[in-house]
Structures are given as C-alpha cells and as structure tokens.
Amino acid sequence: MSSRISLSRFLIEEQRLHGALPPDLRLLIETVARACKAIAHSVNKGALAGVLGDAGTGNVQGEAQKKLDVIANDILLEANEWGGNLGAMASEEMELPHSIPEHMPRGRYLLMFDPLDGSSNIDVNISVGTIFSVLEAPEGNTQPTEADFLQAGSHQVAAGYAVYGPQNMLVLTFGHGVYGFTLDRELGSWVLTHRNMTVPATTGEFAINMSNQRHWEAPVQRYVGELLAGKEGPLGKDYNMRWVASMVAEVHRIITRGGIFMYPKDARDPAKPGKLRLMYEGNPMAFIIEQAGGLATDGHRRIMDIVPQGLHERVAVFLGSKEEVARVTGYHQG
Ligand code: AHM
Ligand code: MG
Predict the structure, then answer these.
(1) I want to staple 220 with a disulfide (CB 3.0 to 4.6 A). Which of 86, 216, 254, 283 is the partner?
(2) Is residue 95 annotated as involved in ligand binding?
(3) Ligand 1 pocket, residue 118 CB under 6 Å
(4) What SUPFAM superfamilies would the database entry show (predicted)?
(5) pLDDT tens-place string over residues 89-107
(6) Residues with Cβ within 8 Å of residue 145, at least 6 apart in sequence
(7) pLDDT tens digits, residue range 17-58?
(8) Is 281 annotated as contributing to ligand binding?
(9) Looking at beta carbons, which pairs linking 217-221 to residues 24 or more positions away fall under 8 Å?
(10) Which domains does the chain have, with CATH numbers?
(11) What is the pTM of this model?
C-alpha cells in the first residue's frame, strides 16, 4: 500500500522534478480532481439518489439538460469558487463565464469544463465523464471577461478528463505526457495507475456516428468508405467500429489501445463547423491526444491552432492514431 502514488504525491513530485508545475496550478488540479470525485459519487449512486432523468431545463446550446448535468456543473462551480487559483470559469452548460465572487480570493487561471459529457448515456448506465481545460488569464487581469478565454488551445497549461465507468479514472496532462489515476473508492483517493499513456500510431479501429453518413462531406465519405471496404479496399486491411456516444469513453479507449474518433461537419447545418465544442471538448482532448503521441485536427488544421471567436464555438474533430488522422486530414487538404 505504501508504494501507491496518490494524485497529491504525484503532483508534488512533478512540481519538484520538472519545476514546470507551479504550486497554484497544482492546487487547482487538486480541486478539480476533488470535484470529479464528488461527481463520480453522484453518478455512481444513480437512481438510489434520485439523480437520473431530465432536469426539465435547457442549456445555452438549446440542449435538454439532465439532472446530473446540472448537479455536475454546480459541484465544479462550488468546489472551484473558493480555491483562490481562478479568475473565472466557463462551462458548456452556462451562457456566460462565471466570475469568482468579489469576497473570494482570486488567481490567474481560467477554467473551462464540460461537466458531464455524454449525458445522453446516463439513464442507460453507460460511461459518461467530465472534461476540463486550463488557460492563464492575460497578465495582470484580475477580472477576466469572455474575451480573455478566446485563446488558441496551444495556450492550455493543463487539461484532463474523468471517466465514470466500470472504473472511475482521471487522465491528466500539463504538457509533460499523460498520466492516468484510478479512484480507490474505499480510500477516496485517485491513485496513479497509468504512466506515460500513449496512442499507438497505427490502428484497425474507428469511431463515428454512421447514421449521419449521408450528411458528410466528400473527404469523410471517401475515408470511411475505404475503412468499410476493408482488406479488399485501397487500405488493404479490415477495420472494426465502435461508437459509445460519450467522447470521454471514446478518447479513453483510443488512449488505451489506439483508434480514430471522428465527429465531422454536417451538411444539415452548413453554418456549424461541427457538433462538439472547441473550448470544452476539442481543445482539452486534442492536448491530451497530442501529449500521448496522437494527432487532433478539424480536417484542415491542428485543433489547438484555432483561435476561437466565441466561448461556445463548435469544431469538427478527427483525433487519435497518427497514421489515420493524417490520412483523413490529407483527404480534406487535397
Ligand atoms: P454532450 O456534451 O451534450 O454530451 O454532447 C457531446 C457528445 C459526445 O460525448 C459524443 O461524442 C457525441 O455527443 C455523441 O453524439 P451523437 O448523439 O450524435 O452520437
Ligand atoms: Mg460534451
């Protein structure tokens, strides 16, 4: 038991060894991890705590909220409000950024989150998760506004996700590789179980919502057509398909055994670049996947190079094993 490395010990050692993890960022990550533990607890209780089902409200994206979407959002806001390391928070579930109240201590970081990703899966007991991303507010700005959040993903100083599944896991990066922690429910602590997580460069597995096929653009039609053609097609091998409809579960599978995840642009709404959100889903997952040796593009460019125009901006997503993401990106580019 004594050889176990808790999240706290891991972060303190990272701070000491690399010097690249400032103490206030370490404390912020600990606070987010504590909130994820509380969310895991609510998700795991399910019907026993009366938390399943719809909240009867809608979010800024016009999507129906689940009770657990609201609970997870409140847990993250409450836990992080008094931590002293943040200037403001932004959430997929809230129209505007949430400033740290006047009477609370403030810090230099900006936190963005999707409190409960894949929430359409809650009621059917399939994995869901929390995704988060951390930026630094422009220097000296103690009262950050929406404009301060609009930084390219390459400026992220940390990102991570928690997946609430058969095991509750927390996966983190702050730019020095990707580390995975498993929640020990008896001890109530995140324990380091996965060091230097890497995405294999090649894969035989893809993830896309095939029911949207007729709405995709030509490069995606071509690429997925080749995957489906298998051994007899130009790629010369058979591919397998998975679709959980929880991005966290999808990314976790890819970071564990490889694969490509795609949520492309859809012809039904030509003005919308994609379904997923750049700040809460695209950027944090891109940071993690790149740190694990994979690629993440919107078909044309690196996701983390996109300079956002709005907090709730959408993005097309192609991420995972290098070889496959490069191929489908190449089909878009030329
Ligand atoms: P959410 O944040 O509202 O849960 O939506 C994002 C989710 C992703 O987790 C998942 O990849 C996608 O939506 C599933 O979409 P679809 O319903 O088209 O399969
Ligand atoms: Mg989401």
Answers:
(1) 216
(2) no
(3) yes
(4) Carbohydrate phosphatase (SSF56655)
(5) 999 999 999 998 888 889 9
(6) 88, 97
(7) 877 789 999 999 999 999 999 999 999 998 898 889 888 888
(8) yes
(9) 217/264, 217/265, 217/267, 217/332, 219/299, 219/328, 219/331, 219/332, 220/262, 220/264, 220/299, 220/328, 220/331
(10) 7-194 (3.30.540.10), 205-332 (3.40.190.80)
(11) 0.96
